Amino acid sequence: MPDFLTLGEWPDAHARYAYAHTTALANRAVLLHDCDQLSAHLFARALTAAVLVSPQLQPDERLALRWQYDGSLQHLTIEATPAATVRGIIAQTHLLGLVQEKPQIYGTAGRLSIVRSSAGRVLGSSTTAAALFEIVDDLAHHYCTGEQVETALVAMLALSSDPTQPIRLCHGFLLQALPDADLPRFDLIRQRLHLPAFRQLLADPPADADHAARLLQALQDDPAGPPPAATATAGPVPAYRCGCTRAKTLESLRHLPAAELRAAYAAAEPLTVRCHFCRQLHVFAPADYRALLEPA
Hints:
Blueprint: E1 4-10, E2 15-21, H1 23-32, H2 37-53, E3 61-69, E4 75-80, E5 85-90, H3 103-106, E6 110-118, E7 121-129, H4 135-145, E8 151-159, E9 167-177, H5 183-191, H6 196-203, H7 211-219, E10 233-234, E11 239-240, H8 246-252, H9 258-266, E12 271-274, E13 281-284, H10 286-289
Parallel strand pairs: 5-11
Antiparallel strand pairs: 1-2, 1-10, 2-9, 3-4, 3-6, 4-5, 6-7, 8-9, 12-13
Helix pairs in contact: 1-2, 6-7
């Protein structure tokens, strides 16, 4: 099934939700970055979590999430747009050879930095301790403490032995309390995200876009009761997409020392730049970057 995003509100619980199916997105990302299975697991779940929060952005905004830990993972960066497009960088793409047990992934200290921007201008930024030592849980904790919005967030995936499609299934679910929510009840619902019935639904491939309704039903006080009266709207199609272009990359060469540019031009050397997000290699002949040597 193609990737999709379902958004809605659950009035009875005074909450809003998002459900994302991101298998194709996750496969594109981990193949581009040549991730082993452990790195793929972390990277794909972080990308899915970013998709789930992306609809909260205004049309011209961007969101940058950066997790930093003193363990082997080191750092992971995800950028998201309100169109549910994401791109990212994971510092260690082959973690399996670096760790023998889970605590080594995260280490003993971490922080999560979030920057919201528009047209290159920072609209807001915050940093919270990433003390739960789990990427998705640390993001949910940020919204609960840094944004003061009670949040439940789950992202799950199943790996495959097929090297051309290393992720068999990836999807996630977000539930956030609205301002008038009964917080004790919301917390009870949040705890149900860990029940086997709900986890099994997230472990199953969605048969259709109504999978979100089945997830909500599993969170009800009476899961065997009638389906919840919740709204459901199709959101933008999630995608791993980089905004780099040849023109933007050429312009970035202005940040190189002028002496370095002049030396390369004098030696008739091409300059190469590889995008960290999409791994595309841009090659510029001396004639391409000659204008950068001229006074602005």
